[in-house]
Every structure is written in structure tokens, then in C-alpha cells.
Design brief:
By secondary structure, the chain is α+β, with helices and mostly antiparallel strands. The chain has two domains: about 1-45; about 50-255, no CATH class. Helix content is about 40%, strand content about 25%. It has helices spanning about 1-45, 130-140, 150-155, 165-170, 170-185, 210-225, 230-240, 250-255, and strands spanning about 50-55, 70-85, 85-100, 105-115, 125-130, 155-160, 190-195, 200-205. The protein has an eight-stranded antiparallel beta sheet with strand order 1-2-3-4-8-7-5-6. A hairpin with a 2-residue loop joins strand 7 (about 190-195) and strand 8. Mean pLDDT is about 80; it is low at about 15-30 and about 245-255.
């Protein structure tokens, strides 16, 4: 009887091992296929492709997400430039991996990311879809910033370390563009952030799988920057640092291009 039970258990163990091997081979094959497609797309766009990088380019290292956790790594890294408002901007597209927690709470996280450099030094701002996570953020003392567009404020949760900057940035044309996120752009987004001048768009847990999705997000991010109000850019051009306390009239706050 003991021999029979042992034989059955060994059979289950062998079957589990074979199943794990098949899953590994299939998953690895799928990853290599995706990597090849991203490499071809990146090169067709004039970007360089790297299988892995341990840290972001210098102009993006200050982004808080890229300093999170440990064992950080960028995979399927695409680097290049895009032209926005007749000015070239460096871009970084990749999967960002990191680990957090200890022991039984040790977890691995993956983010699909598109980062776009701007020539400005700005306050920080984050835009997320409204949800349970944002209620937790409010509970931690980060106030939701509402704008005059009621549907936008109902749909999105906005936080910033400078409310004046948030109101100046979220002009009607910017809001109209961000509302494409609500209607769908072919790839889901978790957060749009402005981090000391760099723009980061990312998706957590469920990564973008195809070059088409990265392309749509890159275009969405470029369109976001392209619509920043002229009066705000004029202040940046005059003084690259947007300083808290600068007087902006109500007309300017409501204005656009």
C-alpha cells in the first residue's frame, strides 16, 4: 500500500515538473517573440534597443518610481527622441521591475513605462483614475485637486505639491486630451505624472504587450506635452523654474492657447 501511494505521489511530482517546464518554455518563447517585435519597432522609429539596464538615463533617475524597492531593472529598453513643439525630447520606454517587502511579504512588481523629458523644472503632479486607491491617498493627507471641468474631476484624481501649477497646467485643451484616457486609447494607463519636468506614463501589473500599445502611449504623452498652455510655457522660458507664489490671474488660470 505504501509503495502504491509513493508511486502515485511520484507520478504527480513528475507531471507537475513537466507542466512547469512546458509553461516556462511557452512563456519564455512568448517573451522572446515580444522582445523581437519591440526591437524591430524601436529600430524602425530610430530608437536604440537594450535587453536590460540597471538604472534609467540621468534625466529620468529622479523619478520616484525608479527609486522604489530594490533589485531594480529595466527590460526591453527603448531609447530615442521625439519632436514636440519643434523641440526634441529624449524618451525612455521599457518594462520596469523591482522587488519590495521581506520574507513572506516579498513581492515583485512590473510596470510598463513611457518617460518623456522636458526642458523645464516643474513641481510634481500626478493624475490617476478615481478609485479605492485614491481614497487611501486622500486618507494619507494628499488632497484631491478639482478643476472647473466637473466630468474630469469626477473621473480623475489629481494631486500636486503646488496647486497653482496644477490649475495652470490643466487648461481646457490639456483636459480634453486627457479625457481620451477615459474613452480609451488602445492601452490602459495607471498614472500620468509630471516629475520635476519629466513626464511619466505607466501601467502597473498588466503590461503593455505590443509595439502598437507603446506607440499609442508615446503619442498620448507627446500630445499631453504639446498642449501645455502657452502662458505657462512663456513663464518657463523666462524662468525655467516655476516658483510657488508667482501671481497668476484668474484669466490666465482659465486661459489656453
Amino acid at each position: 500500500m505504501v509503495h502504491v501511494i509513493f508511486t502515485i505521489l511520484m507520478g504527480f511530482a513528475v507531471l507537475a515538473g513537466i507542466t512547469s517546464l512546458v509553461v516556462f518554455v511557452f512563456t519564455r518563447g512568448h517573451e522572446k517573440k515580444r522582445e523581437g517585435a519591440l526591437r524591430l519597432w524601436a529600430e524602425s522609429c530610430g530608437m536604440t534597443f537594450h535587453e536590460t539596464m540597471n538604472e534609467a538615463d540621468p534625466q529620468f533617475r529622479h523619478i520616484p518610481l525608479f527609486q522604489a524597492g530594490r533589485s531594480r531593472q529595466f527590460r526591453n529598453v527603448m531609447r530615442g527622441r521625439v519632436t514636440i513643439n519643434a523641440r526634441e525630447h529624449r524618451v525612455l520606454l521599457a518594462y520596469f521591475w523591482c522587488r519590495s517587502g521581506q520574507g513572506n511579504n516579498d513581492t515583485s512588481s512590473v510596470y510598463s513605462i513611457v518617460a518623456i523629458e522636458t526642458p523645464y523644472t516643474t513641481p510634481d503632479l500626478a493624475i490617476r483614475r478615481e478609485g479605492l486607491l485614491n481614497r487611501a491617498v486622500i486618507a494619507m493627507g494628499m488632497e484631491d485637486i478639482d478643476v472647473e471641468d466637473a466630468l474630469f474631476s469626477k473621473t480623475f484624481h489629481v494631486t500636486s505639491n503646488d496647486r497653482r501649477f496644477a490649475y495652470a497646467l490643466l487648461a481646457p485643451r490639456v483636459i480634453e486630451h486627457l479625457m481620451l484616457w477615459r474613452r480609451g486609447i488602445g492601452a490602459k494607463i495607471s498614472t500620468v505624472e509630471v516629475c520635476d519636468g519629466a513626464v511619466l506614463i505607466h501601467r502597473h501589473r498588466f503590461p503593455w504587450r505590443s509595439p502598437a500599445q507603446f506607440d499609442r502611449i508615446l503619442r498620448f504623452g507627446a500630445g499631453f506635452i504639446d498642449r501645455w498652455p502657452d502662458h505657462l510655457l512663456a513663464r518657463f522660458e523666462g524662468d525655467p523654474t516655476f516658483r510657488t507664489g508667482v501671481t497668476i490671474s484668474n484669466e490666465e488660470l482659465r486661459g489656453d492657447r
